[in-house]
């Protein structure tokens, strides 16, 4: 049997059995994930250094601690996130029970990029597990040392019906980035070492809008600079393209930053910084339009991996009250029903 088909079958059977739904099971998976981070912190730091030359400081701040904070937040709030959410009712439904139930989707696939291989693997995993799903993880094949730890060590800490990890091998990434160095003119950097798959931080100037470096996500240490004549032209340049995952506006003028915020759209926005918004679990992280669907961090992760099921429970024996909905129709009954259907804050009941 195809091993992937067998894995999917086992995961679907595990979800159908109901074992992932109880809060106790979800909490146990999150605690296992927390133990994985605590007990393998040094291994992860070494792997991140090998893959991305990340310092221990950067690995702690941008990868490990953010993931730990997400786990702790989910564990503290799991039961409240799982509770049915009561919603306002109109006059016609005052005697009913209306609520949203958070149901797990079932089987979730998480494909992680290479630039934050721990953070962008584990943070969505926290939300998927907290929501009661089974998960297939696909770490980045470019961050090989980190991928190896996630594939070989992480499963020991989690229930085996929960994570399954796949691998896809590719050698093209370094060559793709090196090819982008031919765009515009190198002002800073440009050095590369194929044996180490290393490219120095590079600034490109005189870049044309049509060049490859401006047509795709770079995911590398290359910064192309495009000159514009005014702020309005810069905003127009942004708005002519697909909406970005994140937009960063740097200026000594608050007016400039707020104008960029007001006249553009992106998954996230940062004024005078390019990272710290990711450290807040109270802010959703995700794209819009072509840059992605859904978001995660904190409760947003739980909501992304949950189906919000609309529920209305009506008491039996009240058909006489609601009979104005049925023929024979009359203008009076229509007026009554339309008034009853209006959204309003009302504590009264139909008599």
Automatic annotation (TrEMBL):
GO terms for biological process: aldehyde metabolic process. Residues 12-154, 164-307 form the Aldehyde dehydrogenase domain. Its EC number is 1.2.1.5. It holds the Pfam family Aldedh. GO terms for molecular function: 3-chloroallyl aldehyde dehydrogenase activity; aldehyde dehydrogenase (NAD+) activity. The keyword Oxidoreductase applies. InterPro entries: Ald_DH/histidinol_DH (IPR016161), Ald_DH_C (IPR016163), Ald_DH_N (IPR016162), Aldehyde_DH_dom (IPR015590), Aldehyde_DH_NAD(P) (IPR012394). It is an enzyme of class 1 (oxidoreductase). GO terms for cellular component: cytoplasm. SUPFAM superfamilies: ALDH-like. Keywords: Oxidoreductase. Belongs to the aldehyde dehydrogenase family. This is aldehyde dehydrogenase [NAD(P)(+)]. It comes from Ailuropoda melanoleuca.
